[in-house]
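Sequence in, structure out.
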Amino acid sequence: MANATAGELCACDLTGPLDRAQPTVSHHLAILVDAGLLTREKRGRWAWYRLVPQRLDQIRALLAVPQR
């Protein structure tokens, strides 16, 4: 990975595994940033993304199905 620290990824690291072009990956990551699920930090020509744990906890709680 392109000099990643723990818990973050560069958009450039996702194009291969997702089999999508960089503009497509960046577009979808921007949607997740706008939704508050990711944070973005611009470093040089690349953007680095990190999950927002509190938002994931909220989603997990919303999707939780009560056990019977």
